Request: fold
Amino acid sequence: MKRAVSGGSPSTASTGALTAAAPLAAPTSSARTEAYLRPPGPALVPVPSAPGRHTGTEAVDAVLAHLQAVGPAVESLRAQAGRLAGWGTELARRLLDGGRLLAAGNGGSAAEAQHLTAELVGRFDGERQAFSAISLHADTSAVTAISNDYGYDHLFARQVLGHGRAGDVLLLLTTSGKSENLLRAAEAARGIGVTSWALTGSAPNPLTRLCDDYVAVDALPANVQEGHLMALHALCRAFDAEVARHANVAAGAQRGPHGGAARS
Reply:
């Protein structure tokens, strides 16, 4: 059953509470002329700009406004933490059973899809086994052949039909939720028993209506994409936690109830 919960809109009271609780101080005239560099320690410290260079107040204000706008994306994800945890846990169970993740997006969302599949085939934080995960935009020969022969709208759907098996998961990333090639991919997944999840901007949108489940980040488009990366990392943490739990259960079963080797 599709669950439709999304975080609050940037214009809602929750956003107002966020900004009221932690307002950004207006930059002073001296702060406006400083560039920021990351030192070895955990904090950002101001470093004077190079001689002859001046950072305009408009540029600093634009940066501060962008950073302020990240808040609604974070709060939107916080409201859907349970769903992200559920995705990570369910994905781990399916991949441990031999399933596969397919991921797709366009532009910056394609880069984030590939970021996720790299975390699964490689690793996220700790050492663990490799899992099967494919970014559907990454095979340039397939991308150009399918786009040339079938049209760009069929780019991902054709690959879902080729790579997907019943029980696999398809994760689709988009800020708008309107990309035709993602909509067709979701339709193709439904036809062959592949579970589809959408990571989008504000909902409802056409893709959230087609997918089995979704996480919608209510924020400005650039901040939505930043929120998506945080969501993917959160999913990876839940995924790794479930893989570790499964490994601990298996190790306990091998040791037997009294710590020795289990009898066969």
